[in-house]
């Protein structure tokens, strides 16, 4: 274990309790009158026996991490995070519902106005992909409040530009509207990166239920800290996609009787309420304890200095960033590493295309009800709301229960979860069933939307089915990312089942200075980025395809692409290969073992392998997704020295 030492005149504190020297001195000034004589200036040793009543715990109080909060406080914070997530979809939906009236207001025969949401999605993608590590440096609340405070004033220029009829020759109005839309997306992106990660801070990035499907229950498992996501995953998924239909309902209702500028004023009112809620919400990641450094002596008797901030760079390297740009660059590197895993890329593409299909179905269903069935705008919005209602019905199924991760009777050993027999209770079978039904529901919606020859209730019902299955698909994809890339129990000092000798030298020095889930967070935001980009393409290309081919053919093409991605995802999730995850010498030492010489690893009689759960065998069936370079099973194989030294270094 690294030995700590006192630097200068500051106290020797635990590594997880780093504080700035200024904060420490402030604590000394605020001591009781009988302890004001305490000083470390020009002293190597100080006795506290003469200072009665002095207590470090009394004078330096720490608030517990968010995963240890009271249940009511966690639920209130999670509710605010989900409502804030819904605000982003609400902004998208309001504009989509008002586009027909805005085109008449600005006189836009070239259909430039429909590009407003395209620029909004591009702005969301840029902020989400590049800047998600910043809240780990400075806290989540400053970025959330600043993003919402900047997004609200950007609605006023858009409202002014659509408040009156404009001359077609004046293109500056259209350019101003699109520019404000892009910067609104950029601002909302900085808020978006804090919503689902707030749920991670509260409940952890784990799907550990009472009887998890992949391994046995261990009370001391670090992944169980926080209680697990449970039904909050389904609630967040509805806020992510169902709020678009709710916003469309509001926008279509406004243009039925009011000027379209009221849609932007409504956005300001709702955004102001959400801003107040976020001001009142507690901060899940406080920043004062991540802005100092420490010096320690590693196993090689070398003095090392580590900056106690920058969790993403600390995940990739031994030292933290010197400035915020290095943390952003570390996040980009981690994103690229995640993308270049074949299994994860297919999973992220499926999640992104599901989001894009929801956006396209909402737009095309509104166009179908308006043109072919000549419905009034308020009834068009009510018909589109079927997508949100269908997604809402899927929320209870995200809880560990009948159609999800819980088991009525848990397995006796971990190896029983990989048996060859397949039953309807198999988690993989149920995933494949509803993932295959989703593109089939898209094809059914295509067949039911030829026009007025079919009753209008048919496309509405199938659109609701698409919303139902899309919510299940998005929630399940996020769950797969969490259970595949959550390595919190494998970090140095976090798991008592293995020792530091099991790890590479560059990993030993990290000492778990971070509390986030870098791989899970990166995977979620990469998938969201793909979803925003594909939604931008679906918004732009969907309008062109509708005018040239028809809405029915555009939906058919989208469902066909989703069916192809679903087949690829089924292949990626199928466990086809038996891989050794526990070494042959598990219950002994590695001394004089042939395995050590085979992998050219230095023999160590104190080395202890990593054993997860209660396995009855040393082989596991794995899928392409689980064989990725950053998956938790690959990490376990690295710790168990079952991957060559060259691979471990990379």
From TrEMBL:
Broad class of where this protein is predominantly found: membrane
Record's bilayer topology term: Multi-pass membrane protein
Superkingdom assignment: Eukaryota
InterPro entries: MFS, MFS_trans_sf
UniProt name for this protein: MFS general substrate transporter
One GO CC term on file: plasma membrane
Any one GO molecular function term: transmembrane transporter activity
Lineage start: Eukaryota, Fungi, Dikarya, Ascomycota, Pezizomycotina
Pfam families: MFS_1
Keywords: Membrane, Transmembrane, Transmembrane helix
Intracellular or extracellular location(s): Membrane
Transmembrane intervals: 76-96, 116-136, 143-162, 182-203, 231-256, 262-281, 342-366, 378-397, 428-447, 453-474, 520-542, 554-574
């Amino acid at each position: 274990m690294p030995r700590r030492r006192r630097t200068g005149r500051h106290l020797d504190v635990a590594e997880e309790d780093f504080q700035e020297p200024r904060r420490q001195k402030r604590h000394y000034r605020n001591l009781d009158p009988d302890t004001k004589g305490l000083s470390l200036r020009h002293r190597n040793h100080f006795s506290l026996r003469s200072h009665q009543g002095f207590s470090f715990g009394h004078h330096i109080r720490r608030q517990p991490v968010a995963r240890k909060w009271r249940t009511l406080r966690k639920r209130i914070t999670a509710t605010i995070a989900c409502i804030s997530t819904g605000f982003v979809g609400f902004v998208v939906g309001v504009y989509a519902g008002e586009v027909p009236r805005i085109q008449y207001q600005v006189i836009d025969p070239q259909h430039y106005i429909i590009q407003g949401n395209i620029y909004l999605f591009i702005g969301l993608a840029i902020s989400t992909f590049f800047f998600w590590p910043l809240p780990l440096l400075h806290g989540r609340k400053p970025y959330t409040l600043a993003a919402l405070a900047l997004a609200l004033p950007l609605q006023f220029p858009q409202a002014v530009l659509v408040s009156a009829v404009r001359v077609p020759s004046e293109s500056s109005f259209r350019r101003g509207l699109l520019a404000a839309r892009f910067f609104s997306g950029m601002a909302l992106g900085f808020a978006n990166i804090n919503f689902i990660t707030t749920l991670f801070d509260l409940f952890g990035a784990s799907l550990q239920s009472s009887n998890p499907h992949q391994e046995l229950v261990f009370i001391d498992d670090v992944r169980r800290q926080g209680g697990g996501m449970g039904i909050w995953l389904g609630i967040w998924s509805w806020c992510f996609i169902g709020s678009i239909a709710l916003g469309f309902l509001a926008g279509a209702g406004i243009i039925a009787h009011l000027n379209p500028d009221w849609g932007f004023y409504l956005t300001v009112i709702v955004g102001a309420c959400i801003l107040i809620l976020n001001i009142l919400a507690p901060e899940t990641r406080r920043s004062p304890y991540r802005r100092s450094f420490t010096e320690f002596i590693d196993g090689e008797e070398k003095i090392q200095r580590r900056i106690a901030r920058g969790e993403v760079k600390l995940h990739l390297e031994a030292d933290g960033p010197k400035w915020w740009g290095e943390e952003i660059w570390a996040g980009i590197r981690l994103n690229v590493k995640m993308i270049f895993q074949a299994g994860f890329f297919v999973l992220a593409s499926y999640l992104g295309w599901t989001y894009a299909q929801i956006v396209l179905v909402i737009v095309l269903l509104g166009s179908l009800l308006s043109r072919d069935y000549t419905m009034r705008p308020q009834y068009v919005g009510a018909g589109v709301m079927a997508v949100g209602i269908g997604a809402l019905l899927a929320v209870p199924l995200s809880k560990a229960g009948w159609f999800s991760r819980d088991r009525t009777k848990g397995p006796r050993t971990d190896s029983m979860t990989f048996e060859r027999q397949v039953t309807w209770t198999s988690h993989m079978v149920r995933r494949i069933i509803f993932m295959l039904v989703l593109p089939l529901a898209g094809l059914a919606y295509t067949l039911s939307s030829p026009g007025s020859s079919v009753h209008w209730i048919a496309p509405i019902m199938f659109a609701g089915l698409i919303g139902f299955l899309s919510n299940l698909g998005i929630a399940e994809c996020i769950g797969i990312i969490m259970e595949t890339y959550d390595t919190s129990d494998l970090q140095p000092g976090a798991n008592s089942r293995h020792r530091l000798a099991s790890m590479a030298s560059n990993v030993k020095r990290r000492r778990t200075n971070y509390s986030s889930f870098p791989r899970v967070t990166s995977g979620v935001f990469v998938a969201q980025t793909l979803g925003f980009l594909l939604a931008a393409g679906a918004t732009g290309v969907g309008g062109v395809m509708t005018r040239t081919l028809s809405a029915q053919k555009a939906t058919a093409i989208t469902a066909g692409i989703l069916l192809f991605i679903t087949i690829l995802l089924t292949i990626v999730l199928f466990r086809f290969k038996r891989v050794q995850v526990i070494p042959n010498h598990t219950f002994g030492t590695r001394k004089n073992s042939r395995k050590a010489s085979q992998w050219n690893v230095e023999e160590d009689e104190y080395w202890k392998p990593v054993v997860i759960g209660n396995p009855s065998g040393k082989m596991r069936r794995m899928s392409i997704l689980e064989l990725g370079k950053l998956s938790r099973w690959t990490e376990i194989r690295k710790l168990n020295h079952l991957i060559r030294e060259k691979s471990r270094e990379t």
